[in-house]
Amino acid sequence: MYRYRLTIEYDGTPFGGWQRQNNAPSIQAALEEAFARFAGERPLVVGAGRTDAGVHALAQVAHVDLQRRWRPDRLVAALNAHLRPQPVAVLEARLAGEGFHARFSARERRYVYRILNRRAPAALEAARVWHVPAPLASEHMQEAAQALVGRNDFTSFRSSECQAASPLRTLDLLHVRRAGDLIEIHAAARSFLHHQVRNIAGSLKLVGEGRRSIGWISEALAARDRSAAGPTAPAQGLFLVGVGYPVEPLSAS
Amino acid sequence: MYRYRLTIEYDGTPFGGWQRQNNAPSIQAALEEAFARFAGERPLVVGAGRTDAGVHALAQVAHVDLQRRWRPDRLVAALNAHLRPQPVAVLEARLAGEGFHARFSARERRYVYRILNRRAPAALEAARVWHVPAPLASEHMQEAAQALVGRNDFTSFRSSECQAASPLRTLDLLHVRRAGDLIEIHAAARSFLHHQVRNIAGSLKLVGEGRRSIGWISEALAARDRSAAGPTAPAQGLFLVGVGYPVEPLSAS
């Protein structure tokens, strides 16, 4: 068996999420079906992050085990040909060591949450941003965000459906920046809880609007109660932008 | 009558172009119908540039004459409410002098043509870029482009269906820049011929691929023959990004 590491871009709009499911198309199933069509086998594709319905990725990472050895560029070309016209593109494939696991080897996940902050709705970016018409003080959001950085109990920012054993996570970076009408919230951590980034974005938006104080975020965190924080921001503003791994030793194969 | 100047963003994908037409939806008709629904009149909306099917705009400008005087922010809100769910957003409305004409007063139109230059197809930006898999030497494209700047007979870069009286145009700026996988061609002129930017983009792509020399662009221009230049680049990579007007005297009203 040969293990390949794939880097994948997708528009999450038409999908029920990364993970294969019965009632909606998924990015995982789209990839598995593309393999089935040209490789004569239908391998399991394991992703680094199980993005929700409507969430996008610039660089999701997955691994797959194949019976046959492929030239990486041919694997990419064949996958993309068979993924068409679905909005999923494989950017890169490389042979990975047996020890590489897209999900368990990951040391960092990076997300960006995008808010279009202007009166007029989004025309070009409607499925790619959260439209917030009221003016947001992005500098207040940035200041408030810093209270969440570090190792914390994120119960207040975790979906009630989250299945992680522990609510403790280490948020390595949370940065809010504005460029014109667009506010980007950058977040990085080894792993995230379910809805963590979207619940943080929904909470920071309340601070940006002035409906909550900058210090309120610390109180919401300390409460360890989901109802203490803000609402969940919509999926379409969220992008998985990268996954980090330890440097792999050169493959023997 | 009160004349308003509108700034409009749109995703050109679902439209047959800016201009009202019998067999396809248009941005112009979408705006006129939105007015009809809330203003009780159906005014003519005159745009600065009649973008083709599939071409996008970040800041198209149009004017419209209304019987009633509106607060500009209310006009914007009412238009956007009645444009929904079409991907057209009015960013701004302002009262304009009677002498203002969106098309004839314009002194500059600015376009950007976007090429995604990587092997993998576009997933997130499929309807917003021209995907060119072969590596393009953007610095060669930039050098070649400079031969087109200035007052020239652009017959070689003009659609056979172009209805302009003269093929002479003054191209004020043509700049090619790369950021990662994205190549942007910026063009500015008082006015453009039909398909001029797309024909220039299609020609510069041949230079970038090395299928034509840098000097070939000058020969293609001098030939004054459409068949001497490259093919028309697809519509979905083109964005009308701005329209410039002389500074208006303050309105008396």
UniProtKB/TrEMBL annotation, chains A, B:
Record: active site: 52
InterPro entries reported in the protein's UniProt record: PsdUridine_synth_cat_dom_sf (IPR020103), PsdUridine_synth_TruA (IPR001406), PsdUridine_synth_TruA_a/b_dom (IPR020097), PsdUridine_synth_TruA_C (IPR020095), TruA/RsuA/RluB/E/F_N (IPR020094)
Record keyword Transcription regulation present: no
Ranges where the Pseudouridine synthase I TruA alpha/beta domain occurs: 8-104, 144-246
Family annotation (Gene3D superfamilies): Pseudouridine synthase I, catalytic domain, C-terminal subdomain, Pseudouridine synthase I, catalytic domain, N-terminal subdomain
One Pfam family, short name: PseudoU_synth_1
First-tier enzyme category under EC: isomerase
SUPFAM superfamilies linked: Pseudouridine synthase
Catalysed reactions listed for this entry: uridine(38/39/40) in tRNA = pseudouridine(38/39/40) in tRNA
E.C. number: 5.4.99.12
An MF annotation (GO) of this entry: tRNA pseudouridine(38-40) synthase activity
Entry keyword annotation includes Transferase: no
Function, as annotated: Formation of pseudouridine at positions 38, 39 and 40 in the anticodon stem and loop of transfer RNAs.
UniProt xrefs under HAMAP family: TruA
Subunit and interaction comment: Homodimer.
PANTHER family for this protein: PSEUDOURIDYLATE SYNTHASE, TRNA PSEUDOURIDINE SYNTHASE-LIKE 1
Family that this chain belongs to: Belongs to the tRNA pseudouridine synthase TruA family.
Protein name as it appears in the record: tRNA pseudouridine synthase A
Classification of source organism: Bacteria, Pseudomonadati, Pseudomonadota, Alphaproteobacteria, Geminicoccales
Gene: truA
